[in-house]
Fold each of these.
Amino acid sequence: MALAEAGLRGHGVELQPLDESHVHSLVDAASDGNLWELFFTSVPTPDTMGETVGRFIVERSAGTMQPFAVCLSGTGQAVGVTSLCHIDAANRRAEIGYTWYAASQQGTGINAACKLLLLPRAFDDMGCIAVEFRTHWLNHRSRKAIERLGAKQDGILRSHTIMSDGTVRDTVVYSIIASEWPAVRAELNRRLTTPR
């Protein structure tokens, strides 16, 4: 299941392997909407962006994560982060997570484009039998976006995570399994090729 990380591109976005050169533009992206102030998600503050990127690079070296800067095609401007994470080679599973986009990019189709790049990496290249998505119970926008992908809710992990502000998060777990992937792929392609 191991696969060397390479960039991915299509549908107006480029997923570039995350490195220190992205930190400054990611600070700008997170500042578009002051995303770190949202209680139901975990977006690094300007002061912790470099540390977070460094931690993700360490996890990539350990083989448990493939983190990417989400960049706009043409300009190369980083507008967010996404990753294949919690990679479990023995059980052929991974999660798509640690995803956030600048407020001005939300609702533009960028999420569907990123998923249409990451899901083939997981299912077709890495041989995953399931891909998970996890989000805060109260993050209704994220839950709707995950459900629009065609993921099914597996359950809710109650009192699962203590957030940076001390609140306790109930985590909603979704997944797409390998047998569902062809239909999910077809729907994502339809969404991205149908004029808005």
Note: The chain has a mean pLDDT of 92.
Amino acid sequence: MMIATEEIWRATSHFLGWFYFLCWSFSFYPQAIKNFRRNSTVGLAVDFPFSNILGFTAYSVSTAVFLYSPTIRSQYAFRHPISQVPSVRFNDFAFALHGAILSIITYSQFFPLIWGFQVGRNQRSSWVFRGIVTGSIAGVFGVILIVLILSKDGGNDPLGWAWIDVIYAVGFVKVLVTVVKYCPQVWVNYQRKSTVGWSMGQILLDFAGGITSILQMVVDSSLDADWSGITGNPVKFALGNVSMIFDIIFIVQHYILYPSRTEKDLADEDDSEAGEREPLLNA
């Protein structure tokens, strides 16, 4: 009976994993489709897809290495002797790679030479986010240097600085991006007193994905009787929680604070600012 129950819960974990994968993966499409239908990116903060490229590229690297690198998996097993297999799943990697590709596509929509969409004059990546991208990359290379200099065994000794620490650094880049990437959009919605141009479809899918992602980690850790499945994979845990917090903020903005603002309501405002608009040459 216990074996049958365990199989049910493992099947539940598998289902939750693919369910959140589908929710989070499909969540990339509503915004790109919305931009295409409106023939415009006005209302969307450019820093969102810009930072997503870095975040999901980092997440792709992190999940791929945890899945397929014997060195990293052995170092993880050494540091987590009770539960020696990382809680990363193939659907994590598939989601990350898919997200990176869709983020590049959405960001490319800010270039009129590619899509011909209407782009606001101020829709340029900010110096703050350019600094975050540059600093994140520099930080990862800094950890690589630390491993090369301080490691006693070329990064292969898990007791000290090891290559797994580099992968953790890459993973935390994704956490950093997730924490900050929504802030510009919250501010844009606040300034315009509207969520027009920002797809709520992606937010609802993202919220559902966050819930099921956390549930999968709880189920997996419970089955292994070891909660290091969460502490050993802080990136996935943080992604689910941080995303849901911002999803709630956007839901409040859309359905409670600015529910009456429509595309037509903002048309006159956008027209009045037409003189401030120009093709975006350097997003």
Note: Residues 2-276 form one domain.
